[in-house]
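Module 6 notes. Inverse folding takes a fixed backbone as the condition and produces residue identities as the prediction. Think of it as a translation problem where the source language is geometry and the target language is the twenty amino acids. Below is one complete input and output pair. Work through it position by position during the lab.
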């Protein structure tokens, strides 16, 4: 591997000598005589090594070192001087120098110092690469180190600096706006506006005005000209959440806006142009909405350039614990409480529950616990009643957490007693399919409608339950 060095030495003869020493080590050398020349070179390019004389005609080498360490910390700097002292050496090392050489020195002394500096630089680069390869537990507002979230982080990194439209999908509460903000903050527009608009929360008759703005007198209540989200997001990012809720007529205007970058305000005739990065999101399945005729196919293809699907919390394994601990710490501080941890039973509750409301529901539950209780440890009985029921029923099974999958094990004796209980609920003999139907539907009800969880408790696959439901419908029709 070839290395480069910038040598700053005002003596012509010594500069030529040191240049030869360095070239003998296979290093490409640029030699300058003044500090100002060195600073100009560093703006243009950054060498692997900076070999810097302390006493220069125009600027102190120590002053240059401080600037270099602040702006270019990856450059390894070796200080040289004919006026060596312990104090100068200490100042140089404190300012970020790798080593300190006192003139005169021979090629061997310089060679050893240079090799050590390059070796340290290489090791630091390896450490940096290793740290970058480690799973990210926190990323631009997200918390979680599960494999599914690592994939989301990687996609954001890849797409952030592009202008391509991004379409984020995921259940409510999975963090679609956090994802949009992460794309904005990681990209080239981070210092420009990020404007978010929820299409589901705005009346249909006002949403066009909210996006494109309106002119005075355009409708009742329009007492002055008003900028819309598109104008406010100029040179930045416009995030349209719940875009599948948008009226079809407005979808056609949005399509034209995406194609041309131009629009007209409501009640206006003047064409306006903006430069925005468009990110959209929905908690629906967009292609299903297209097939149902609720969403324009041409608009779908315009927006669905880079899809990002955010996983539900139940698919993120132990991420729920990382999130819960962070949320608990935040809310305890806000509410002036002393909670710091979850008990083992409370931890099992967090893992056992399926969190249909995702991260938003987790936040609300923990906020409720913090506000209504006192102590340092969150106990199982502090959870809202539905979660306490889940944990109570989980006494029938043990939980094993293996990365992102939760495996339920149930005691065979308990399962048999459950069947006996269902069978004894009637004095008359019932058809076997009806007894089976009652058992399965009872398990589904106990699991709050969660079929995969009920299947795990019954030791069958979810597809079996769906098939049996279809057969029950046919039997009931025949009767």
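Target side of the pair, the amino acids:
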């Amino acid at each position: 591997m070839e290395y480069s060095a910038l040598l700053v030495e005002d003596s012509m003869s010594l500069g030529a000598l040191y240049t030869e020493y360095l070239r003998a080590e296979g290093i490409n050398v640029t030699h300058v005589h003044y500090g100002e020349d060195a600073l100009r070179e560093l703006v243009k390019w950054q060498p692997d090594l900076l070999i810097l004389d302390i006493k220069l005609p125009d600027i102190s080498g120590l002053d240059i070192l401080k600037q270099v360490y602040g702006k270019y910390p990856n450059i390894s700097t070796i200080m040289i001087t004919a006026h060596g002292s312990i104090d100068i050496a200490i100042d140089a090392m404190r300012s970020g120098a790798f080593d300190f050489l006192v003139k005169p020195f021979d090629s061997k002394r310089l060679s050893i110092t240079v090799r050590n500096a390059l070796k340290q630089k290489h090791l630091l680069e390896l450490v940096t690469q290793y740290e970058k390869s480690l799973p990210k537990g926190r990323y631009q507002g997200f918390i979680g180190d599960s494999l599914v979230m690592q994939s989301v982080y990687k996609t954001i990194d890849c797409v952030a600096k592009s202008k391509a439209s991004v379409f984020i999908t995921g259940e409510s509460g999975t963090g679609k706006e956090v994802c949009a903000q992460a794309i904005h903050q990681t990209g080239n527009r981070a210092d420009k506006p990020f404007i978010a608009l929820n299409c589901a929360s705005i009346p249909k008759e006002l949403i066009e005005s909210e996006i494109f703005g309106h002119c005075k007198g355009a409708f009742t209540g329009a007492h002055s000209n008003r900028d819309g989200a598109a104008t406010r997001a100029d040179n930045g990012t416009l995030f349209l959440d719940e875009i599948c809720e948008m009226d079809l007529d407005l979808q056609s205007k949005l399509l034209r806006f995406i194609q041309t970058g131009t629009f007209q305000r409501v009640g206006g005739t003047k064409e306006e142009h903006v430069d925005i990065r468009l990110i959209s999101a929905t908690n629906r399945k967009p292609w299903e909405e297209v097939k149902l005729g609720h969403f324009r196919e041409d608009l779908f293809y315009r927006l669905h350039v880079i899809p990002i699907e955010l996983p539900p919390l139940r698919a993120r394994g132990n991420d729920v614990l990382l999130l819960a601990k962070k949320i608990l710490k935040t809310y305890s501080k806000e509410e002036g409480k002393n909670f710091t941890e979850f008990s083992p039973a409370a931890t099992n509750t967090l893992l056992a529950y399926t969190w249909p409301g995702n991260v938003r529901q987790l936040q609300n539950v923990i906020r409720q616990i913090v506000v209504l209780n006192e102590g340092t440890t969150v106990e199982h009985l502090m959870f809202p009643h539905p979660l306490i029921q889940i944990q109570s029923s989980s006494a029938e099974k043990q939980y094993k957490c293996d990365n992102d999958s939760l495996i339920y094990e149930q005691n065979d004796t308990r399962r048999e007693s459950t069947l006996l209980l269902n069978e004894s609920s009637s004095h008359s003999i019932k058809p076997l399919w009806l007894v089976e139907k009652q058992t399965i539907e009872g398990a589904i009800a106990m699991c709050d409608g969660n079929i995969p969880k009920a299947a795990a408790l019954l030791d069958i696959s979810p597809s079996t339950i769906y098939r049996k439901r279809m057969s029950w419908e046919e039997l009931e029709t025949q009767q």
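Reference fact for the lab report: Confidence is low (pLDDT under 50) at residues 394-427.
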